[in-house]
Amino acid sequence: MKDVYITRISKFLPNAPVGNDEMESILGQINGKPSRAKRVVLRNNGIKERYYAINSQGEITHTNAELTKEAITKLFDDSFTQNNMELLCCGTSSPDQLLPSHAVMVHGLLANKNLEVNSASGICCAGMSSLKFGFLSVKSENSNNAVCTGSERSSTRMMASMFNEEAESLSSLEDQPIIAFKKEFLRWMLSDGAGAMLLENKKNETGLSLKIDWMEAYSFAYELETCMYSGGEKQEDGSIKPWTEYSSKQWLEDSIFSVKQDVKILEEHVISKGVESLEMVFEKYSKDPSDIDYFLPHISSNYFAEKLKTGIKEKGLKIPESSWFTNLSSVGNVGSASIYLMLEELVHSGRLKKGDKILLSVPESGRFSYAYAHLTVC
């Protein structure tokens, strides 16, 4: 089987960075009142800037497919054009429509040639699932190259207008209506953007490449209930009642399509299962944690960073603290694109040297899934 290398990596972040004080002027105020949760959430997550596919006038500037296309286009030059692509893999948790799939919409915008496409759904792990499909295709010689992406356009789901019907409904029931924290929490967490990687069966002739040594993923859905969801409502028994079983009136009044997170379950399991899966992957590949030069953990909030470090230490996994690399504070939580954006920044930082070992770690709180990739700089 072929070795697989990441030979190019790119990103696209829309418009100007948005500071904490500017967020509500762009997303809007629910029920015309400042958020009560915003200050608490921002204090804990440590995010200083993020990007929205919405300009300062409140106009939507990009679809998710357009964000993805812009990132992909940056991979091309005279030596590798869009017509050299053999496989396109796109992962996202926020496609522009239910059907058709995200990847075919991106392919339509590229308008290059007939090729195989694959869409990976899910939440944060969707970007890693996209990468793994491309990795396995090139490794098995099904294709000579693959373009893999992770992208999100979450901002339009976070706009106040998406909650107006529910706020008005609550107003008729109580004097001071408050949108449930499980819904508002994520308004101050999520960001927009896209990342893209070119995978090939040979490394770059000049410059550095990243060899993908292995990829692994785990799901704990068999034992844990849903934590993060959209397009449904959680029931008392932990099951999810899907949007197809609600009336169109309820879609609006209950903000059925808003992104929600059960913060109690998140707090209870996201770190413990992350450390458990990390221990499993080190054991499977007989990997010495102290051998890692760069550890890139996708964390949704700095609130979990110290908890993760503590959990890792308690398990005796000696990942050097000096190896940690993240850009959460400057780009925000971009879901499935976050790991692409972190790796892109590291690659272009000039810090990497041949022989460096990189571990990518991506958790997903949907129903607690975790994905990993081990890379060697060559």
UniProtKB/TrEMBL annotation:
Transferase keyword on record: yes
Residue stretches making up the Beta-ketoacyl-[acyl-carrier-protein] synthase III C-terminal domain: 286-361
UniProt KW Coiled coil keyword: no
Transmembrane feature ranges: none
Top-level lineage group: Bacteria
Signal peptide (residue range): none
Keyword annotations from UniProtKB, A to Z: Acyltransferase, Transferase
A Pfam match: ACP_syn_III_C
Name of the protein described by the UniProt record: Beta-ketoacyl-ACP synthase III
